[in-house]
Recover the amino acids of this structure.
């Protein structure tokens, strides 16, 4: 990684750069922790010769919140709000991934309607996630217009979240066993409106950047990675697909009825910023396609599974029915019996394979819960991707990797 | 995508190659889980990566687990690996004693292991022999304990109103 001497000028063991050259031709530059270009709190110490980056050291952990430790003290249903705060650009995917992990542990089957509803919510979240990432790539190349324009569309997605669960950013959407309520008529109206208007706006955004000479010159060749190195670094999701490998959890290990839908997995060739941008653009279109299919074919049935031990009963039954009262009490107090066992479940998050490794010893909380946070694993490759590039390319590479501090630091 | 490999087939193949190093084989929730002697773990992961049939060449996740009451096996290292060619997942475990929780690093095989091993060291104090830069990553450098170990309670350990015993366990 670092080509510089071992003796550190900083009193931080993880930083192995030298500052002996401060008066020479080589300068040390802090990109972060609170630099606008990092879009989150993490630090990159760059050594630059003019504009060219010679070495880079990363510091992460500024917003570490000990989620894995917290989870060992919480009942299963109280862990959902923790997952919101991993990749907060696509919270619903994290929430639903967690619900599915617990459902796998307890062996609960979901009705088809729940699975389709989940697909709609998760794909909306993917669109919101990719919209932010791609419009921010625009911002970092100097094109603010697309960003402000697309934020109106993201707002519509957030209004859809509000219709489902009442929250916008940290959604805590759904329950173990389905949803807390069915999609409202207002939701259907808003979704219909979104599906009608969004493609037009999105195509406008696309035409602003995708074939823009300046944008292409800025992004092509910026921060490339070969598919072999990407694999070795544990890349998943759009970043890996931009390098040319079509791994997608939705296809490889379909969950929540993804096998029912017709969609394709876009891949790039060069693994650079332009390819990452284009892969996300196409994924937004594919997500729209999935939402349309799921929404049109939304099966009849219940919006929740019949698992009274895990799913809160309706309030009126709690007041009038002894069984419902007992279940309500047990769920709220974290008293539900959970089988001992260990499961690994993964979903295709905004940044790729988002995994949950859960060990239960039968207690009220997990014995151990480990999150596979794609950001944390692939962000390691950043120095390798930017060495030899210019500072402005480093900024672009960072935004196109979609490093979300919440997911990075857990 | 259906997997071409079966749990039983892979378990038998690994057992044939590594024999006594395989301590136990289990398949919880249909995922092949094998306990491997800690000193053979690196070789085994290297072998399943390069084997022409298995091609288990993607490191999904690695991390530690603390079992303080299991004498001589206080720490577990858990590796999740995935073969994308065969769509086959495997979980490998090695148990380490509390006196010297150390295992060979995977950084020579997978760049991805670098930070995950640092994180495991940071939270559990497990040593990775041969790691190029085994220092804390998410916690501050001056921290003098390993917070994911079970002896560090999240809440005040003297507080009894949230004790599991009061919930019938």
């Amino acid at each position: 990684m670092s080509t510089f001497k071992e003796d550190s000028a900083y009193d931080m063991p993880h930083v192995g750069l030298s500052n002996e050259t401060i008066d020479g031709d080589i300068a040390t530059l802090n990109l972060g922790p609170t630099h606008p270009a990092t879009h989150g709190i993490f630090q990159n110490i760059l050594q630059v010769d003019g504009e060219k980056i010679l070495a880079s050291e990363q510091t992460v952990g500024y917003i570490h919140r000990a989620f894995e430790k917290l989870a060992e003290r919480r009942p299963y249903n109280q862990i959902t709000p923790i997952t919101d705060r991993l990749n907060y650009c696509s919270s619903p995917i994290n929430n639903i991934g967690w619900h599915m992990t617990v459902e796998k542990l307890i062996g609960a089957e979901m009705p088809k309607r729940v699975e389709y509803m989940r697909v709609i919510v998760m794909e909306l979240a993917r669109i919101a996630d990719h919209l932010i990432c791609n419009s921010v790539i625009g911002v970092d190349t100097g094109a603010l217009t697309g960003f402000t324009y697309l934020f109106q569309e993201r707002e519509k997605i957030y209004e859809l979240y509000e219709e489902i669960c009442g929250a916008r950013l940290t959604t805590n959407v759904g329950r173990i066993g389905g949803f807390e309520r069915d999609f409202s008529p207002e939701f259907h109206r808003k979704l219909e409106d979104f599906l009608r208007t969004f493609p037009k706006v999105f195509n406008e955004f696309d035409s602003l950047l995708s074939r823009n000479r300046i944008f292409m010159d800025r992004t092509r060749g910026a921060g490339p990675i070969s598919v072999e190195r990407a694999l070795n670094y544990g890349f998943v999701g759009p970043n890996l697909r931009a390098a040319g490998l079509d791994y997608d959890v939705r296809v490889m290990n379909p969950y929540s009825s993804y096998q029912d839908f017709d969609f394709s997995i876009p891949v790039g060739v060069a693994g650079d910023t332009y390819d990452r941008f284009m892969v996300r653009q196409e994924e937004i279109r594919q997500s729209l396609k999935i939402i349309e299919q799921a929404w049109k074919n939304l099966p009849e049935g219940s919006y929740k599974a019949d698992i009274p031990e895990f799913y809160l009963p309706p309030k009126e039954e709690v007041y009038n029915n002894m069984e419902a009262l007992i279940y309500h009490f047990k769920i709220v107090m974290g008293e539900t019996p959970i089988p001992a066992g260990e499961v690994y479940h993964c979903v295709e998050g905004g940044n790729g394979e988002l995994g949950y490794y859960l060990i239960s010893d039968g207690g009220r909380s997990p014995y151990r819960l480990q999150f596979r946070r794609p950001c944390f694993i692939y962000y390691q490759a950043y120095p390798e991707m930017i060495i030899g590039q210019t500072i402005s390319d480093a900024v672009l590479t960072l935004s196109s990797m979609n490093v979300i501090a919440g997911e990075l630091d857990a | 995508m259906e997997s071409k490999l079966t749990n039983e087939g892979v378990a038998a193949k690994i057992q044939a190659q590594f024999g006594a190093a395989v301590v136990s084989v289990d398949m919880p929730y249909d995922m092949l889980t094998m306990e491997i002697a800690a000193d053979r773990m690196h070789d085994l992961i290297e072998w399943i990566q390069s084997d022409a049939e298995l091609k288990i060449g993607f490191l999904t996740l690695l991390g530690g687990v603390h079992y303080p009451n299991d004498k001589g096996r206080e720490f577990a290292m858990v590796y999740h690996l995935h073969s994308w060619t065969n769509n086959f997942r495997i979980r490998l475990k090695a148990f380490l004693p509390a006196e010297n929780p150390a295992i060979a690093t995977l950084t020579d095989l997978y760049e991805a292991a670098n930070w995950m091993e640092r994180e495991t060291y940071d939270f559990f104090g497990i040593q990775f022999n041969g790691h190029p830069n085994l220092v804390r990553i998410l916690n501050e450098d001056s921290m003098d304990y390993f917070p994911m170990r079970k002896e560090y309670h999240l809440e005040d350990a003297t507080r009894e109103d949230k004790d599991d015993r009061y919930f019938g366990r």
User: Anything to note?
Assistant: Chain A has 17 helices and six strands. Confidence is low (pLDDT under 50) at residues 1-12 of chain A. Strands of chain A lie at 26-31, 43-49, 52-59, 341-349, 352-360, 368-372. Chain A touches chain B through 51 residues (CB under 8 Å).
